[in-house]
């Protein structure tokens, strides 16, 4: 399964077989995470990670995961539980740029299976509404 971008990879619009309106290019995030502090450059010097909607970190929590692991005591809105996850300070979800250059606000209650399908560009799976 391919994503639009990734380590040592590239794609053109011709590679997006699932349709550009059904494929995420970019996702909004915050840089304040459980085991770090927010900085102007988001720890770019030592944390170089992308945001993969199809990566569940063993937890499959999706957008705005404010809890580290499964410990409710760690929950703090605005501080993501894991590096490389999608989140925003907007209530209820985050903004995503799709392959057709549109920007969509996607709810944090969107099923993880739909987020996973949006991450892939050639899996041929139906997306459903989001």
Describe what you observe in this structure:
- This protein is largely without helices or strands and 130 residues long.
- Helix content is 6%, strand content 12%.
- It has one helix at residues 112-119, and strands spanning 24-27, 93-98, 103-107.
- It has a 3-stranded antiparallel β-sheet, with no helix packed on it.
- β2 and β3 (103-107) form a beta hairpin.
- The radius of gyration is 15 Å and the shape is elongated.
- The two termini are 21 Å apart.
- The mean pLDDT is 81.
Chain-averaged pLDDT: 81
Oligomer status: single chain
How much of the sequence lies in strands comes to 5-15%
Strand order of the largest sheet: 1-2-3
Instruction: Give the SSE order as H and E letters.
Output: EEEH
User: Helical amount among residues, as a percent range?
Assistant: under 10%
| Amino-to-carboxy terminus distance | 21 Å
What order do the helices and strands come in, and which of them pair?
Layout: E1 24-27, E2 93-98, E3 103-107, H1 112-119
Antiparallel strand pairs: 1-2, 2-3
Short description:
With 130 residues, this protein is low in regular secondary structure. It has one helix at 112-119, and strands at residues 24-27, 93-98, 103-107.
